[in-house]
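Objective 1b: paired records.
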Amino acid sequence: MFRSGGAGDPMPWGMAVLLSIALPAVGVLLIVGGRRAREGRLRRNHFIGIRTTLTLNSDEAWDAAHLAGGHLLSVAGFGPLLTGPLMLTHPSNGVGAAIVFAGIGWMLGWILAAGVVGTRAAEAALGED
């Protein structure tokens, strides 16, 4: 069932298992990070959050960006959280890959939205246009 070869063949079992674990882990990280961000409990760092030059150089900008965009980071996490295990139910005929790409697309779209909202809030907090 889980062999690879040509187009339309199922993805290798190891890849399916890896993705079914890694995607939900990333999703949980985003959900928890987004929650901490909107509660004002996410300190300035280089690992998770809305990391722009503006937010990394100012605590005020960091806080404003994350209060405004933290909920969007949490929303971003639900795509990979749900699609990781769901991908295991359809590992063949490209459906599994489509599910993975849908989850990643969901995540990236909401992360970009959080970045835009957060950057605007940071600029407003610092009085920049």
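Objective 1b, second protein:
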Amino acid sequence: MSANEKKAEGIGLGLRVDMAARFLDEAPESVRWVEVHPENYIGRGGLYRSYLDRARERWPVLTHGLSTCLGDTEALDTEYMGQLRGFLGEVGTGWHSEHLCFGSGAGAALHDLLPLPFTDEAARTAADRFGRVRDAIDLEFAFENVSYYAPQGDDGLDEARFCAEVLERTGGKMLLDVNNVYVNSRNFGFDPRAFIDLVPPDRVVQMHVAGHFVRDDGLRIDTHGEPVCDDVYELLGYALRHVGPVPVLLERDNDIPPLEDLLAEVERLTRIYDDAMRARETGAEVHP
């Protein structure tokens, strides 16, 4: 069985060009799969493509998009969607994921992930685009919850119920970003475990964890440039007990540390993952 035919499970790492050469040379056993952004590879050869080809020989590959965000109202680029569908088939991913947010406006990329208001109208818009993207790629599709830094509307919905509404309207899947749940809970004063309790376990196909920055005023910013904090490790254990064995990605996109530091985080995540799976069977607590 080739790597592309294997199921992604356990802990994965994002394939980033800043660390790819050494990562691919050492091919650490603790990393069970890799995640890539298709936008970095479609229509591109050279070094990027060689890194992707080597990764595909070694690991299952999952994909996570940046350019078809579900809050965008512009028509889908049919040429790009055809290229995306071909790329997803080539790498053999089991599903594709995208962000539940705005990513463009007035025909221009925003180069940021801007949150949607938690309203019925926004849920309808996101669900419609979700369906169009899913049809275009002809593959299982999931959305990811994002971080936000200001209140997002007053339509009787909080973030958890907004996500649940999109799930209900689409019949789709969710990529649960545990760090984003934690960051938002600290910034806006809700219980992160209560958020996770409202997520239907059978709709989650993947999780993300990452580090975040704490400003002097206490505001937490999702940066993907810090080590994962203890509270996020603990929340991951809770989420895994709730959801079950789905692949978990360690995201590190900025200030990438030495490979040894990343692998130490992977090893800790692996212990939490294994403990959570045992706890689902025995009812024991997970100790991060």
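The chain has nine helices and twelve strands. The radius of gyration is 18 Å.
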